[in-house]
Amino acid sequence: MKRLVRDNALALCFLLLFLATLAGQSVAGTAAFNEEQVANGGSSVTWAEYVTSSSFAVDVAENWQSEYLQFFLYILITVWLIQRGSPESKKRGEEGLESDAEQKVGPHAAPGSPAWAAADGWRKTVFSHSLGIAMGLLFLLSWLAQSVAGLAAYNNEQLAQLEDPVSWGGYVTSPDFWNRTLQNWQSEFLAVASMVLLAIFLRERGSPQSKKVGDPHSETASSG
Asked: Among 87, 147, 156, 186, which one is least packed by beta carbons within 10 Å?
């Protein structure tokens, strides 16, 4: 058990942080929702009612979809684009998908390579892009969840104001949906750009996301 925890400490740490912050969001969200309800002459709800509501679901899903979009685009864009001096980038001249020998696929697979890396045809192709495919699907699913939960929450507000509800198509083309969506996207893109650029000139000793402390600023694709 100790070895299992140690070998998976990074994933477990972030999963625990995720659960802790999700729980905190649910408590804070319940309080904020009830304040708004009381201010508008409505009745308070319990924690259980709030976490099963469309209001909570849309707040969670809109953050998930922006995070998965960030990783999906970053995984794909870093195949082709470089940033000189960044440990987050490949070196100049290494842009692209690289050769089968460099990627250890097909006849170049090593003894310990995954079975699909050594396979031919569609299995090799799918496995070669499986991380991007997974992130893309997670983005689409969370985006769909946001749109459905957001539609329910939006229509609840419409009905409370004695206005007509809208269709799913009407909602996903509405200012409310794109305001929620774009405010998350812009923050994710800024965070990625900041990490790429700051890692050129700043260091975090021992972190694989940073260059070695003594590496030149111009050193690319180096980690400490």
From this structure: 186
Q: How far apart are CA 212 and CA 224, in angstroms?
A: 4
Cβ-based neighbours of 215, under 8 Å, separated by 6 or more = 203, 222, 224
Tokens representing 60 are 């969670």
Q: CA of 200: how far to CAs of 103, 116, 134, 197, in Å?
A: 26, 36, 29, 6
Domain interval for residue 220? 62-224
pLDDT in tens, 119-133: 989 999 999 999 999
Q: Are residues 9 and 90 in the same domain?
A: no
Q: Is the same domain home to 150 and 46?
A: no
Q: Is 200 helix (H, G, I), strand (E, B) or coil?
A: helix
Per-residue pLDDT tens over the stretch 37-71 = 898 888 899 999 999 999 999 999 999 999 999 99
Tell me the C-alpha distance between 217 and 83, whole Å. Answer: 12
Per the structure, how many domains does the chain have? 2
Residue 46 in domain: yes
**Rounded to two decimals, what is the model's pTM?**
0.87
Instruction: Indicate whether 4 and 85 sit together in one domain.
Output: no
CA–CA separation, 126 vs 119, rounded Å? 11
Q: Are 164 and 66 in a shared domain?
A: yes
